[in-house]
Amino acid sequence: MTKRIPHLIDDSHVVSTGRSADVYNPSTGQVIAQVGLADADVLRQAIDAASAAYPAWRNTPPAKRAQIMFRFKQLLETHEAAIARLISEEHGKTLEDAAGELKRGIENVEYACAAPELLKGEYSRNVGPNIDAWSDFQPLGVVAGITPFNFPAMVPLWMYPLAIVCGNCFILKPSERTPSATLYIAELLNEAGLPKGVLNVVQGDKQVVDALIEAPQVKALSFVGSTPIAEYIYSEGTKRGKRVQALGGAKNHAVVLPDADLDNTVNALMGAAYGSCGERCMAISVVVAVGDQVADSLVDKLLPKIRGLNIGAGTSVGLDMGPLVSAAARDKVVGYIASGVEQGARLLLDGRDLKVRGNEAGFFVGGTLFDHVTPGMTIYQEEIFGPVLCIVRVASLEEAMALINAHEYGNGTCIFTRDGEAARLFCDEIEVGMVGVNVPLPVPVSYHSFGGWKRSLFGDLHAYGPDGVRFYTRRKSITQRWVKRKSHEAAQFAFPSNG
Ligand code: NAD
After folding, report:
1. Cα–Cα–Cα angle for 131, 115, 160, nearest 5°?
2. Which NCBIfam families has this protein been placed in (predicted)?
């Protein structure tokens, strides 16, 4: 019998008997488990558990909440190997890549350990005679997160450690394609001493997401995933008066200027384009080469490296790249490669026929490189989410920037150059939320915040860091007067001011 992956409610496993989905090992193409898909009844149990836990958790001192996060961080580090294996088995990414995403997730736990500092509030003495004013940052109540398949450890850790230290109770809906690592990590937080019901995990698909959107007890939704779903959740959630931050898809361009150090640039591009089989929202999928000479040199240097990619089952050691997450993802990428050829791009390396010995049924596509891609092509416009790098040739930095600014997505971008003036112009005027200068994957550290512009993010606040604290709290402004005993003040009918 295949394993059935449960929900986690009130610190107990709940095995639902209704609908389920197959969970694959993408390296072998085999079903390795089934995940129960929550219905309205399971979600109700989670909401009841979170609502019951909220009053006591809200009143728990931030320093005590933070102490649990210190223990959680230690447990995550102790169990790194087990977590990396769970990620790799269901996602296909290499073990080293899986450990890397966990480390970036742990950064967010470290940030959450600063809860007493983050929640100190703002205070002004004597804003008027005998009057002091301050702002408190109070929790929202029960909040929820919906996460994508591609970072089963890191993206949930962007959300609930911070939401929880801010005093909220949390319901997490992981991707049904990669549920196990997410569940295991949530169990570790309970082991670290989190009171029952403060964090609950409901497995599921659209049905439970819609129920979360509908539930009046859920005050805020954090979403990370593709743009159409992000837009849907943002519009349906805000329509119901919820706070929503919804991070969507991407098409990240790397601009290469003629003065760039091309050997370092090519190494940076290899990891950013083909790492995790291109299944990263910050993956570089377009290289904008300024000048034909740059483009030709990049092609010469990239081709042998892409041919040399060490591709295999993610759980083996020392690989560069594993498979795509599912047969559907592989077919989609293969379809994009065909469309690039049909629309006239020059296919320099074709990963479609890759077979990995011993894992012939795995969902593999090899490293693929297109040159002479133009903005009208589907492979330029849409997010491929696979190991496909497109080279676009332009004549100037201005043309490169105009191209990026015209694209519907604005998640990440980077520029490779030794010219500080060009880099500064790029940082100032590019319409993208996260920018790298000689840094291919400019994923902000946990004490900044993560988010794209344009159709890569719906909402006002970015994820984690200072924006995360604001998202998971609401400001209460308090103005207080204590008049000296026996002093009397006359009634005042004009609007109060210091004038
Ligand atoms: P997805 O949008 O298919 O799924 C994300 C989540 O939404 C999952 O939990 C899924 O169960 C749920 N979902 C799927 N369809 C739904 C529907 N119709 N209604 C309601 N909920 C639904 O995304 P994915 O394939 O898991 O992840 C890949 C996508 O996520 C890519 O587009 C990638 O760029 C994006 N992503 C963005 C970021 C970012 O920070 N901007 C980070 C990681 C991934």
Report:
1. 125
2. MMSDH (TIGR01722)
For the record, the structure tokens of 386 come out as: 């696979």
CA Rg value for the chain: 25
Q: Mind listing the pLDDT tens digit for each residue in 129-139? A: 999 999 999 99
Contact 472, 139 (CB under 8 A): yes
Q: Which CATH number fits domain 252-437: 3.40.50.1100, 2.60.40.10, 3.40.1160.10, 3.40.309.10?
A: 3.40.309.10
Q: Which CATH architecture has domain 3-248+456-480?
A: 3-Layer(aba) Sandwich (3.40)
Predicted ipTM beyond 0.90: yes
Length of the chain, in residues: 499
pTM for the complete prediction? 0.96
Q: Which residue in 61, 58, 36 sits closest to 198, CA to CA?
A: 58
The total of other beta-carbon atoms located within 10 Å of residue 254's CB is: 26
Count CB neighbours of 482 within 10 A: 8
* Cα 239 to ligand 1 centroid, rounded to whole Å: 20
Output the CA angle 225-230-232, nearest 5 degrees: 140
Catalytically annotated residues: 281
Q: Which residue's CA is the nearest one to ligand 1's atom 20?
A: 206
Q: How far is the CA of 194 from the centre of ligand 1 (A)?
A: 28
